[in-house]
Design a protein that fits this description.
Number of helices: 9
Strand order of the largest sheet: 2-3-4-1-5-8-7-6
CATH class of the largest domain: Alpha Beta
CATH topology of the largest domain: 2,3-Dihydroxybiphenyl 1,2-Dioxygenase, domain 1
Order of helices and strands: EHEHEEHEHHHHEEHEH
Number of strands: 8
Number of domains: 2
Distance between the termini: 68 Å
CATH architecture of the largest domain: Roll
Length: about 240
């Protein structure tokens, strides 16, 4: 008898069980209208500690804007196991236009925005997924035009990968110590990936950590500035 009612047995897979080299769940990120209740629950019920935080708003980059978007993010973790939960909430001004608020309105409440998976070799993983038909969020070309300058300014100084390869695959770079950085990429949200609006705004992130424990805070600003630069070039 099947273990679950209605379950149908399927043959054992003939391909490798993990062909893309995934290792573990790095973190789970959730969006909230206000994250304080969740932070208190994680701290006082589960015994988690604050690990990392960031605040970003487009008005920090371009003061005087009449539109914009921002977020606050706090990562809580349990040091013994390494379990990490990232928590986002929208930031003012322009609260309503924040990506976090839009997510909550589409989802009709708080919920998991994405799950981040680590891999051993980002370039091989992304190439393999692309060959299998997986689509990723696009990255503006100007992001890579400015990447050598960012690598120098952030203190990373050098990376092992070739920038043309990263540009071709759409892989992001972040970090703040010499030769300590992370590679990062985002799959399209489920609604776009499966071409079904009912699939919702959930998505996956893939990370390769090469000495950096952060969560890509530098890419918030870099991606925003890249999009702004390309919009100005297109308009001018």
């Amino acid at each position: 008898a099947p273990l679950y009612p209605g379950a149908i047995a399927s043959p054992a897979p003939t391909t490798p069980l993990n062909p893309y080299g995934f290792q573990e769940i790095d973190h789970v990120t959730s969006n909230f209208q206000t994250m304080k209740p969740m932070l208190l629950w994680l701290e006082h019920v589960l015994g988690f500690e604050q690990m990392w935080k960031v605040e970003f708003h487009t008005s920090d980059v371009e003061p005087g804007r009449t539109t914009g978007s921002g977020l606050k993010s706090i990562v809580m973790w349990e040091p013994a196991s390494g379990t990490k939960f990232a928590n986002n909430e929208p930031a003012r001004p322009f609260f309503k236009s924040s990506q976090i608020n839009i997510f909550n309105e589409e989802l009709r409440g708080d919920g998991v925005q994405h799950v981040a998976l680590t891999c051993a070799n980002m370039i091989d993983t992304v190439r393999g997924l692309r060959d299998s038909g997986v689509t990723f969020m696009p990255t503006p070309g100007s992001y890579y035009d400015m990447l050598p300058e960012r690598i120098a300014k952030t203190g990373i100084q050098k990376i092992d990968e070739e920038i043309p390869t990263l540009r071709d695959l759409g892989i992001l770079v972040d970090g703040d110590h010499e030769h300590a950085y992370m590679l990062q990429i985002f799959l399209k949200e489920a609604a776009g990936l499966y071409k079904d609006p009912a699939a919702g705004p959930f998505f996956y992130e893939i990370i390769q950590r090469k000495g950096d424990r952060g969560f890509g805070a530098g890419n918030f600003r870099a991606l925003f500035e890249s999009i702004e630069r390309e919009q100005k070039q297109a308009g001018g």
